[in-house]
Design a protein that fits this description.
Elements (H helix, E strand, L loop, with lengths): L2 H19 L1 H5 L1 E5 L4 E5 H113 L28
Antiparallel strand pairs: 1-2
């Protein structure tokens, strides 16, 4: 229970206690003026009734304020939920756009890589063909040179090579002609 509620409850209890203790005084009729005429009525009872009417009015006003605040809070909650849903939808659409953008970029990169790969394969094939052609040309050139050398060798008179005679001892050692034999 809040402090204000406790204070209001104590005030209401004090008014009720004073009214109960002084009921005879409150109910005693007196001559009173109501503005345009004078009436003989119990003044205390009229004041107690007006106080009760004022209390009822304040309670009704508080209930009205609480209900209007409650309705306003509900309205704000609905608006906030609608805004939250809009934000979630916008965020989801941004994620979708981002995903589509990334997929597009990935497809572009994949196409570029495929083109580069195809160009690289083409260049490797050209290089292999050039190397093969160069190897064939080298083979033909070497074959032509070997053929020329064979022709030259076939046209020359055959000379018998002279083999120098090397003296050898009985043990198989080579004897140097300039050195005296070992004793």
């Amino acid at each position: 229970m809040g402090l204000r509620t406790a204070v209001l409850l104590v005030v209401v209890l004090l008014i009720a206690a004073l009214a109960a203790l002084n009921w005879t005084l409150i109910a005693t009729p007196t001559l009173m003026s109501i503005g345009f005429m004078q009436v003989n009525a119990p003044f205390g009872l009229i004041m107690l009734g007006l106080t009760a009417l004022l209390g009822i009015f304040f309670v009704a006003y508080v209930v009205y304020l609480q209900s209007s605040i409650l309705f306003e809070t509900r309205r704000h909650t609905k608006e906030m939920q609608a805004q939250r849903n809009l934000a979630d939808t916008a965020e989801a659409s941004r994620f979708t756009e981002l995903r589509n953008f990334l997929e597009t970029q990935e497809n572009v990169h994949m196409a570029r890589n495929a083109e580069r790969h195809a160009a690289l394969l083409s260049r490797v094939e050209q290089f292999e063909a050039a190397v093969r052609l160069r190897a064939e040309q080298s083979d033909h050139t070497i074959a032509a040179h070997i053929g020329q050398l064979e022709d030259r060798l076939d046209r020359r008179p055959v000379a018998v090579p002279v083999v120098p005679v090397v003296p050898v001892t009985a043990s198989g050692a080579v004897v140097d002609a300039e050195m005296p034999p070992a004793v």
